[in-house]
Write a sequence for this structure.
């Protein structure tokens, strides 16, 4: 019996030593649709900044249920953000911003999530920058985006960039 418990313990340790404790996922759809860019009078330009009504959520969930038991109290993490504009499909005059609009919910019964930073709009650049940090598994962290710099002088065209959200465990 002792050998069985030891073998199971070693397998759990081996699985967890080769993987991160949490995994990150993003849900939701943020859309800067045409209704956000309404010009009602001649000579006007687009609004200086647009915040869509749609939002997204970040989830930092435990990879395995045993992680929440064994590592739940020890996981501290940091979320970074950047964007990767598609060549020819982005205008440098456009600025994209992000902010965290809530604290989300805990992913397990271990501890209460503690989140810091990210409460104010922060510009998303092509360089990776810190967004916010926290501890414990945390799900449904609401995030909001803002776009500024759009102008009628840009002309009508599709613009495209990829938002890259990464995290690291400390």
């Amino acid at each position: 019996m002792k050998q069985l418990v030891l073998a199971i313990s070693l397998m759990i340790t081996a699985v967890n030593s080769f993987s991160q404790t949490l995994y990150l996922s993003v849900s939701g759809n943020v859309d800067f649709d045409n209704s956000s860019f309404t010009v009602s009078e001649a000579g006007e330009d687009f609004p200086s900044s647009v915040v869509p009504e749609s939002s997204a959520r970040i989830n930092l969930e435990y990879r395995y249920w045993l992680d929440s038991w064994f590592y739940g109290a020890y996981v501290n993490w940091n979320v970074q953000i950047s964007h990767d504009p598609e060549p020819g499909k982005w205008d440098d005059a456009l600025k994209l911003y992000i902010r965290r609009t809530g604290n989300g919910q805990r992913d397990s019964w271990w501890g209460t999530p503690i989140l810091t930073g990210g409460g104010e709009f922060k510009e998303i650049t092509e360089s990776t920058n810190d967004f916010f940090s926290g501890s414990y598994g945390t799900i449904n962290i609401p995030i909001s985006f803002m776009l500024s710099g759009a102008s009628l002088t840009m002309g009508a065209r599709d613009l495209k960039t990829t938002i890259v959200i990464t995290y690291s465990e400390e």
Remarks:
- The chain has a mean pLDDT of 75.
- The longest helix spans residues 2-17.
- Helices lie at 2-17, 65-70.
